[in-house]
Amino acid sequence: MTFRILTVCTGNVCRSPAAELYLSQDLAGLGFVEVSSAGTGALVGEGIPAPGLQLLTSEGFAGESHRARQVTPDIVRAADLVLALSREHRRAIVEQVPAATRRTFTIRELARVANFIGAPAEGDAGAGSAPADGMRAAVLLAAAQRGLVPQPEDAADLDVVDPYRRSDNTYRESFGQIRPAAATIARYLSSAADSRRNV
Known about the structure:
It is a single chain. By secondary structure, the chain is an alpha/beta fold. The chain has one domain: Response regulator (Rossmann fold), CATH 3.40.50. A four-stranded parallel β-sheet has the order 2-1-3-4, sandwiched between helices. The model has no long low-confidence stretch (mean pLDDT 92).
């Protein structure tokens, strides 16, 4: 049983592919997880711009083959977890597919919720014994708990800064916001998967 994660930004050439690569690496040990990305206003067919690609390459990631694609309702419906790179993207996704509300977060929002919850307990928020079921239950638990998590003083802290056509420093800032959020989410989901293996 596959657990599918979708990351979404605007052009699908900077933030969402970086998030896709980070999450893919962090969850690589789980063969049932697929991570992909798309854009709300995708620069269809384009790759990651040179500054972003150089930064990712320096971190050991291979992003040369990435090509942007447009997000569609079908792509959203197929995802078990949708990670938007800003609140604007989250709104666009939910407007397109209202049923995706409970499994759509900004990446930094879900990281905050995951830190608040800690490791999901066995049997939290769902049925099923497969590791992917544990991850789906963890997403539902995060949706149920997100209203209890203290909000940042600045709501923009739920977003990732857009580096497109900006400086190398902005790329470093942007990817530096994504990397720890992705790592936190990967730990949270991995813990949820492990909880079902131990049942």
